[in-house]
Structure formats: C-alpha cells, structure tokens
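REVIEWER CHECKLIST
Item 1: Sequence provided? yes
Item 2: Single chain? yes
Item 3: Sequence as submitted:
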Amino acid sequence: MSRDDEMRLKEIRKSKGISQLKLALDLNTNQNTISRYETGEREPGINELIKIADYFGVSVDYLLERTNNPNMQK
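Item 4: Structure as written out by the authors:
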C-alpha cells in the first residue's frame, strides 16, 4: 500500500484505546506486523483484512477507506 492507500487501522485502534500489542495478541499475530500494516510497509491479505474488520465491527471497505460508513452490509 502506498501512503495514500493506508488503512484506517491506526485511527480505529487508537479510538478504541487498543494497543498494537493487544491487537496483535487478539489477532494471533505480532506487534511488528500491526505496525507495518499501519505504516503501509506491509499489506494484509484478505483473511487478515476480514479478521481486523470483524474485530472492530466495521466493513472491509471502511477499513480500506473506500467508504466513510463503518457499517457492514449483510
């Protein structure tokens, strides 16, 4: 992901008061991976995107900044 294509991950995580370490542990990954997702150094795969979106109760599109509506469509 380029700088312009970063996810909302850091914004959502901070708004919920969750540390990178807690998120990493809850998602069964490591803090460095979360940090790289937040800086755009690494792109999460579709399974990771779904896990992150489900964790925060938002849509993948919201996470990827494709919409400003956080609600998941069912």
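Item 5: Key structural point noted by reviewer: The domain at 3-63 is CATH 1.10.260.40 (434 Repressor (Amino-terminal Domain)).
Item 6: Recommendation: ____
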